[in-house]
Amino acid sequence: MRAFVERSLVAQVADEAALRAEALAKGPAAASASVVEVTDSTEEYVQVLRAGVVVGASANVVGLAPLAMPEHDRPVRVDTVPFAPGSFVVMSVAADNGDVIVVGRSIDDVAEARRAVGVALAVGGPAILAIVGAVTWWIVGRALRPVEAIRLEVEQISTSELSRRVPAPSGEDEIARLATTMNGMLERLEVGHERQRRFVSDASHELRSPVASIRQHAEVARTHPNVMSVTGFSDTVLHEVTRLQDLVDDLLLLAQIDEGVPALTVDVDVDDLLLAEAARLRAVTPLEIDTSHVIAGRVRGDRVQLERVVRNLVDNAARHARTRVELSVRERDPGTIVVACDDDGPGIPEAEREHVLRRFVRLDEGRARDEGGSGLGLAIVREVIERHGGTTTLSAGALGGLRVEVALPGSTS
């Protein structure tokens, strides 16, 4: 700081000396050797040079050789002069007649100013730093106060209190956006935690039913061996175990979907899957299964998961159909394959169609569980189809019941 002040003041004195030399170059000092008047003989001197020889000077340097011979516009510092103590800065200007006007100006005031600045910095610097530090601490503390409030709130949030939110300051600055982002994250965590909690609760409820049925029949067979035959008991246990296995498979598939486990992607002929399920259904039910509208359709996806989708569609249609199920595959537009299942059952009211696509949802809670299913069939359909980039649509079917359509991107190979 002191050096900067000194350089600035010296440059200012040099400019003043140059202006003085330019003014003299246009006056009589440039035309003839004479004594040049100066305002203060201790602060300024003038020499007029002709071919390097002094031909004119101010009274304080009369008879002296050139004290300095600076180049034009290049100041020279002279630390000792015979007529005054202290240093001078010297500038030169060429006159029209060839003379060189040399003007020196004292820079003692610069040294005094430099000392004054040094004293001011020594005395006021620590105070200024203390004030600036205090102001900075206060401003930063005030700016970060919302961050501390956010930290304290986050520290107190646990898995049992995910409904809490961090305080969001007003405005659109970075801290406000941080609070908004964190509240959005907490909301997603709350939704995910609640969904997981419901999933565990519903899964436990569903798994309890077949286990309880097997235990009940086993206790009856053990207590009253004459009441239940071995064949009847084994049929009951086989039925409940099959139901239990299907439920576990469904739960594992949903867990994989929730965890984002990557699906295997291969070419899958959905018409073959649909025809295979139709053949299976004909062997176990008296329903009329119409596959006359099934055409070739190939998509890219996970074959195992798509098989589960087709089976859930067919089983859902067969469970609610009275006499007839119609299966179809068509190309809705270039690049989209649509698989549809129609039944002639009671259908689903339009207001409740979106509801049945959720997990563990049954519209008729009074139905027996072995008739109504686990409430996962259509939920698995929608989630698997969405994972494959498709859509699931429920509507009123041409047979009078429910029509379920899944649309999938067709294979390009």
Structural class: alpha+beta
Q: Could you report the average pLDDT, rounded to the nearest whole number?
A: 83
Radius of gyration based on Cα positions: 49 Å
In N-to-C order, the SSE pattern is HEEEEEEHHHEHEEHEEHHEE
| Total beta strand runs | 13
Provide the CATH top-level class of the largest domain.
Alpha Beta
**Total of domains:** 3
How much of the residues is beta strand, in percent? 15-25%
Regarding quaternary structure, how should these chains be classified? single chain
Biggest beta sheet summary: 6 strands, mixed
Q: State the CATH superfamily name of the largest domain.
A: Histidine kinase-like ATPase, C-terminal domain
Topology:
Blueprint: H1 2-25, E1 35-36, E2 44-50, E3 53-58, E4 76-78, E5 88-94, E6 100-106, H2 108-156, H3 174-223, H4 230-259, E7 266-269, H5 270-284, E8 288-294, E9 298-301, H6 303-320, E10 324-333, E11 336-343, H7 369-372, H8 377-387, E12 391-396, E13 402-409
Parallel strand pairs: 1-3, 8-10
Antiparallel strand pairs: 2-3, 2-6, 4-5, 5-6, 7-9, 10-11, 11-13, 12-13
Describe the structure.
By secondary structure, the chain is of the alpha+beta class. The protein has three domains: 2-111, Beta-Lactamase (2-Layer Sandwich), CATH 3.30.450; 174-258, Signal transduction histidine kinase, dimerisation/phosphotransfer (DHp) domain (Helix Hairpins), CATH 1.10.287; 263-409, Heat Shock Protein 90 (2-Layer Sandwich). 49% of the residues lie in helices and 19% in strands. It contains eight helices and 13 strands. The protein has helices at residues 2-25, 108-156, 174-223, 230-259, 270-284, 303-320, 369-372, 377-387, and strands at residues 35-36, 44-50, 53-58, 76-78, 88-94, 100-106, 266-269, 288-294, 298-301, 324-333, 336-343, 391-396, 402-409. The strands form three sheets. A six-stranded mixed sheet has the order 1-3-2-6-5-4. Strands 8-10-11-13-12 form a five-stranded mixed sheet. A two-stranded antiparallel ribbon has the order 7-9. A hairpin with a 5-residue loop joins strand 12 (391-396) and strand 13. Helix 3 runs antiparallel to helix 4. The chain is elongated, with a radius of gyration of 49 Å. Residues 365-372 have low confidence and may be disordered.
